[in-house]
Amino acid sequence: MSSTLRFLTIGLLAAALAWPGAVLAQDTIKVGVLHSLSGTMAISETTLKDTILMLVDQQNKKGGLLGKKLEAVVVDPASNWPLFAEKARQLLEKDKVAVVFGCWTSVSRKSVLPVFEKDNGLLFYPVQYEGEESSKNVIYTGAAPNQQAIPAVDYLMKDVAVKRWVLEGTDYVYPRTTNKILEAYLKAKGVKAEDISINYTPFGYADWQARVAAIKKFGSAGKKTAVVSTINGDANVPFYKELGNQRISAEDIPVVAFSVGEEELSGLDTKPLVGHLAAWNYFMSDKAPANKVFIDQWHAYIKKPKRTTNDPMEAHYIGFNLWVKAVEKARSTDVEKVIAALPGLEVPNLTGGVAKLLPNHHVTKPVYIGEVRADGQFDVVWKTSGTVPGDAWSDYLPGSKDIEADWVTLKCGNYNTKTKMCSGQSYK
Amino acid sequence: MLGTKLQITWLLLAVILCAPRALAQPPLRDVGDVRLVLDELREASFVEKERIVERLSGRGDPSIRPVLSALLEDRLFVRESDRHVFIVKSADDSLASLELIDPVSLAGAGSASRDDLTKIGTNNQLRKRLRALVARFDLSGPDAAVRLAAVEEILRSLDAESLALLRARSAVEPNAGVREQIEIGLGLAALDSGDSRARLDAIAALTRTLRPQVRNRLAGLLERAADGSFAESDERVRQAAAQAVHAIDRWRAFYGVFETLFFGLSVGSVLVLVAVGLAITFGVMGVINMAHGELMMLGAYTTYVMQLAMPNHIGAAILLAIPAAFLVAGMTGVILERTIIRFLYGRPLETLLATFGVSLVLQQLVRSVFSANNRSVETPAWMSGTLQINGALSITVNRLCIILFSLIVFAILLIVLKRTRLGLDIRAVSQNRAMAQAMGIRTGWVDAMTFGLGSGIAGIAGVALSQFTNVGPNLGQSYIIDSFMVVVFGGVGNLWGTLVGGLSMGVVDQLLEPYAGAVLAKIFVLVALIVFIQRWPRGLFPQTGRAAESQA
Amino acid sequence: MSLLKWRPTSVGAAWTMIERDRGGSVFLALVAALAIAAPVLNQVVPASSPFHLSTYSLTLVGKYMCYAMLALAVDLIWGYAGILSLGHAAFFALGGYAMGMYLMREIGPRGVYGDPILPDFMVFLNWQKLPWFWVGFNHFWFALIVIAAVPAALALVFGWFAFRSRVTGVYFSIMTQALSYALMLAFFRNDMGFGGNNGFTDFKDILGFDLHEDGTRVTLVVVTAAALAASYLACRAIVGSRAGRLFRAIRDAESRARFLGYRVESYKLWVFVFSAVLAGIAGALYVPQVGIINPSEFAPINSIEAVIWVAVGGRGTLFGAAMGAVLVNYAKTYFTGALPELWLYALGALFVLVTLFLPRGLVGLGARRRRVVQAGVAAPVIWALGSSVGVSLGSKLK
Q1: Which residues pair with B118 in a beta bridge?
Q2: pLDDT at B192
Q3: pLDDT tens column, A311-334
Q4: Are B423 and B416 in contact (CB under 8 A)?
Q5: Whose C-alpha in A100, A308, B501, C105 is 20 to 30 A from the C-alpha of A14?
Q6: What is the C-alpha separation between C206 and C212, in angstroms, rounded?
Q7: How far apart are the first and last CA of chain A?
Q8: Strand (E) positions, A92-195?
Q9: Exposure of A175 by Cβ count < 10 A (0-12 exposed, 13-18 middle, 19+ buried)?
Q10: Contacts A180 to C, Cβ<8 Å
Q11: Does A242 touch chain B (CB under 8 A)?
Q12: What is the mean pLDDT of chain A?
């Protein structure tokens, strides 16, 4: 008897809590933040949440947007991919946010994509990724492969005269796609198949002895060898530690990484890593005045003078300013109007240049190659002369070179220029 | 008229044609020249900088060495006020004003504030070139170790000039080790000589070296060009080279087995370290501690905090971190035991769940206190680097230290259990609690101490782990399943089982890895273990007797 | 193996058993009410009304019910037969993957690369044809068979070896954990043909119905509710039968049951297999509602969470396990939204408190008032201590 009554009580309590509370007067524009604050991705994504909060704060100090204050709605999808979709739905349907800044891994983005397309939301995605996607509801402010991987390989081939290549990645879509593109690119430039070694390791792989010894062996065949690393997350620390232990210096076998930035280096002893490379569209050590202002604001906001800034933060900076500009241009936060207003807008980036939003929902970005310094910062050793426009569909993959994305004239993210058909994943 | 004009034209042409050559290599005869050349470094691109340092060292004047090594060590700066180049005594981050040294006279030149100085940057290629150039100067240095390092560096990028230096040096070098390395360099050069006898001799001399450069060079002799002709024309020399390459490869394969064995032992010793603490709590007390991984994490963070507290004595910090981690993790374990586990004796499944909850709390606690980011733990100099046994086998020092460390820890644990009073009490309580109580042993206290011991060992394992893997809140999660596997495989309650089990699992994993890849090797080990347990449910060295039966 | 002892003595006796089980009746009534209320509140009640059930909440309800089914599966073998499986999420995920494979085949030429047969990730990996284990998944009935068959087969093989060798208790739990961990590693590999790290996502429709339409979602919720009710009735029938009594005997004193002449291994094996099938079906219903299946579903922590749901609700009482699942997941949804930093503290504290103070879960609350008071005092104290220590230390040391 008592257990039944207790269950009824609990059930009623739960039901009472489930019903939404009184709807408060809405006089703010809601900005959704969909970044993991716990779990494996928390390390990278918590900084991005704080960046958006800072930008919202600054915009409110400037008087808000369209006369209303901005309110950030933060949720924690906890590095759990199904939870990402659920939280995205929560932000769009329950909290009714006007825009969402979020996601890091491709899985999380793919998991929320159907939600954004069904509910017609707007997502700004700040991380470098593998391309092969262009959605009407997503603005990709991170680098596409032609804005990071290809220029890095060009630098190694021309300036460092690399003849043998190790493509070392973590086993998931971004490294697999990037390595596919790079393999095709290298072969197109005349590199023989036996001079390319491709290898994948699982997430969080910690014991790199055997693998690094194999790289050493591959690199001691007499030709200059370089490692193109798409190793992600936690596995980077033991990888670089092992490189240091086996005395593989950057002068012998340079490693260029696409997922290692200032934030990742702050958790490492960087002395054995001096000289290894990274390719990004932004480095904290850039001397542009806009960068200094941003860094000072960040240190004041986060109240820690030693915190680093990195490329995804700049991507959010660009994305946020693009959104604000688009809203002001469209005089509304309605998603359709904002999406229509966005292409063609230009905002300053943090390296002294300008980021322009293209019709394929990608941004123009400069490419920098930096060498690791002993203090965890990067010295820029090479850069593109101007900005590179982002290309969602790589020209080096047979399945993608005929495909084009254009949301202004063609109104399609997956348009095949040969068959003149729009297809693919766009939700219709 | 024409004749004179022609003559003048020829003269002008001659001057024009010869001038660039003359201008390109101006004799650096005086100080002013050196300074001018140094000033060119200010605006030069990296490629131009390489050319400039080549010119600077071209004469072989040892006074240029300090400039080259300063540039290598990021200590060459331009003073903005007068645009002169200076060497800086120390470019440490903490100094606001840097002491300047004149690059030519090497005398003190006052000081300047950091804001007035711009560093002259280097990149990988430039640094590599600088090292080779500095090595040439070091070849005639007083210290034999420095000379050896210089020869090694020169061997990495052999060219005509360094070869000439090596030849000159070989005549006067007193140290045998250095002379041996020089001979290798000269041997490699001899492979290019016109005389086939000399080439054969060189091959005979080089066969004993297992260096990759030597092997590559010998294999290069056997290469076919596009038209079918060999790089090496003489048939006998080719045969000798082929034999030499074959011999070198055999030796390398042999040492490769040792290398794989070493990798397996180092992976295994890590497994033993993380599992042995669990073997005590699980085996001796029957308590499943899912928070074991987090106790290791606490040990790793203790190392980090120690290094924060003693930033200038990293080596000492690590040594002190060992007892500190033991205490921190041990105390946590004792608290855990007294507050939670004590009430759950005899209910292993509940202990599992409760300790899992504790592990979540500990993870989140560390995240709140230290932030979710990984923390950097430095390896001290005496623990880093490699021991080069020969050209084919090199052993990383830190892994060697970890192997030795885990063996020492294991030995100490064995001694504690077999020879101390505490160990006796622990064994008594685990074999028959009621009798032990009847004999007057305070079982509650012994339980707490056992758990504390197991947890303390986990903390020490964390110190070792911090040396080669991430120190972050998720450190424990990566190792918890492995540690359980080792304990179950080795036989619960048996330390020797843990040792044998851990080492063999590590070796098998590393043996499989080159063939199957890391993931498949891991999966295979797990599946093999599952199958093994079906056949021998109590592990390699099972406990026997009625007490053991009733415990499970 | 004698199956005679499985059948309840008569249908009428079964119904009497159910009526005697008040908690269970309340539970079934709630499920039925939900099955009726959900479509009404979502489709009929207008969106502006505070009683409208949004699609978001609808999906949550469906998800909770799938978890409740998983909890039932775990409670059946743990609460009644004493087998603690720490790898049941593996069976859940296997069923989910089977359903996912069907849904991927259903996408057809509407994928990114437009290939009518091969799913996108295979085109991307340059595979020329469908691997053998994908053949047949374009038929729904085939997928249904696999959803039940694969978890059953795995449980059969694993269980047969394990129980035959008398691997019990803690050893068995650790082995199941190793199994789910190995499966997770395997499914993360892109070369396996299961989508690797990305898993399966971007589903379009099921049996011709668009998965994103509210109507389909509502139907899925109703089907899940029906499946939940059916699983509950099936479990209750098993537990109430003579076989159920034998399970309790095995749980309490296995050796004694064996010496009394019962084929203990066979019974354990069959209940383990049945539980695995239940988990697989739960997973299969979960995937179309959540829209993604990914190898992290195999993670050992998911299985341990399932056990905690059962422990919180009340092990050995089927409806308690189901309610525990709903309660804990609801709390998770709430806390990861409201107080994300404190969620793990709360979850950890829940584990500890439930095992210490509520060995019979919330269902056993009524009988232990003193324990309730202890738990009620301890919980907020631990929470406050933990979070305040963490936050204050954090602001000083970070």
Answers
A1: B78
A2: 75
A3: 999 999 999 999 999 999 999 999
A4: yes
A5: A100
A6: 10
A7: 53
A8: 99-102, 123-125, 138-140, 164-170
A9: buried
A10: 124
A11: yes
A12: 86
Q: Which residue has the higher pLDDT, A281 or B122?
A: A281
Which residues in chain C are contacts of B485 at CB distance < 8 A? 174, 178
What residue has token string 């063996």? B407
- DSSP state letters, B404-428: HHHHHHHHHHHHHHHHSHHHHHHHH
pLDDT at res. A265: 84
Measured between CA atoms, the residue of chain B closest to residue A307 is B373
Answer yes or no: is pLDDT of A2 > 70: no
Name the residue facing A111 among C30, C188, C292 (closest C-beta): C292
- CB–CB contact A111 C363 (8 Å): no
Chain B interface includes A423 (CB < 8 A) = no
Chain-chain contact of A238 with B468 (C-beta, under 8 angstroms): yes
> What amino acid occupies position A253?
I
Alpha carbons C221 and C290: distance in angstroms, whole number: 12
CA distance linking residue B306 with residue B300, whole number of Å: 10
Cα–Cα distance for residue pair C305/C297, rounded to 1 Å: 12
Closest residue of C to A114, CA-based? C202
Mean pLDDT, rounded, for B193-208: 79
Strand order in the sheet with A225-230: A196-201, A164-170, A225-230, A255-257, A277-280, A368-372, A378-383
Measured in angstroms, the CA of A170 and the nearest CA of chain B are apart by 11
| Tokens standing for residue C158 | 């694993």
List chain B residues with CB under 8 Å of C344: 360-361, 363-364, 367
Give the DSSP per-residue string, C270-282.
HHHHHHHHHHHHH
Residue pLDDT, tens place only, A353-386: 999 999 999 999 999 999 998 888 999 989 888 8
Q: At a CB cut-off of 8 Å and minimum separation 6, what does B177 contact?
A: B144, B148
Interface pTM, i.e. ipTM: 0.79
Neighboring chain A residues of B364 at a CB cutoff of 8 Å: 38
Residue A45 CA from chain centroid, whole number = 10
SS3 content of chain B, % helix, strand, coil (to 5): 70, 5, 25
Q: Which of A40, A246, A267 sits opposite B396 (nearest CB)?
A: A246
Residue in B304, B305, B307, B298 with CA at minimum distance from that of residue B327: B298
